């Protein structure tokens, strides 16, 4: 006498929530170790087999600041009125360099992690966020150079420090949020439109010259400064410099910039959540 045993196979489908505002924060926290390992992997891959390693994180801002100091301070004479120009330029460029690198790496993060995206489940938002956070490694080294330069000018009596320096983390956080927002947005768009990886570097270069990184906004007309305030990077740069260099905060510009960052964050999450379900098929 034989007994037949029927085996039933239950299939579970894992898919994003239909609501775009559901960020799956519980899953994001559950997979926090994956976020750490992906971030650390990106840092190590960036400097793997390089001749001078992390020194690139110091050379790039230093050499770029020296070149633009020669051009704008000596030739064009775009002098900052209250602080030495090299300090003005470096404080802006290190913020820009972080945003530029973070957005560039994040934009290609989903396409570059095809095996992970198509084979295993995890919150896809982790991929662009980890690529963005890996840029903090370079920002840390750039800060060390900036701190050394601030000490030098402070000892010379050309720089004053105040309590405002405690506000620096606020503007660093805004820069991180801006980079995460744009990186998330372009990472999703790059999956569907591969033109993004070609157009993005050019767009970022245009954005650099449209931001007061190497020139003070005071050289512009009042109307132009108001328009420039809608560039989300302008408020970050103004607030970051004011906090570091004991200058006056332009709260209107900072407020407009913070508002633009909130709008970009909402937009990027909306686009990402709407496209997330199709990543594995389109990638």
Describe this structure in words.
This protein is mainly α. The protein has helices at residues 25-30, 32-47, 56-75, 85-107, 109-112, 114-119, 126-133, 136-155, 168-192, 196-209, 222-228, 232-245, 251-275, 279-282. Helix 7 crosses helix 9. The longest helix has 25 residues, at 168-192. The model is unreliable at 1-8 (pLDDT under 50).
Question: Which key terms come to mind for this protein?
Answer:
14 helices; mainly alpha; single chain; 283 residues; disordered N terminus
State the total count of DSSP E strands: 0
Assign the structural class, choosing from mainly alpha, mainly beta, alpha/beta, alpha+beta, or little secondary structure.
Answer: mainly alpha
* Largest sheet entry: none
Q: How do the helices and strands follow one another from N- to C-terminus? A: HHHHHHHHHHHHHH
**Alpha plus pi helix count:** 14
From the spread of the alpha carbons, the general shape counts as globular
- Report the mean per-residue pLDDT as an integer: 85
The amount of beta strand, in percent, is under 5%
- Rg calculated over all Cα atoms: 22 Å
Which residues form runs of ≥5 with pLDDT under 50? Answer: 1-8
Instruction: Tell me the helix content.
Output: 55-70%
Q: Termini separation (Å)?
A: 53 Å
Quick take:
The protein has 283 residues and is mostly helical. The chain has helices at residues 25-30, 32-47, 56-75, 85-107, 109-112, 114-119, 126-133, 136-155, 168-192, 196-209, 222-228, 232-245, 251-275, 279-282.
Give a topology summary.
Layout lengths: L24 H6 L1 H16 L8 H20 L9 H23 L1 H4 L1 H6 L6 H8 L2 H20 L12 H25 L3 H14 L12 H7 L3 H14 L5 H25 L3 H4 L1
Helix pairs in contact: 2-7, 3-4, 3-8, 4-7, 4-8, 4-9, 4-10, 4-12, 7-9, 9-12, 9-13, 12-13
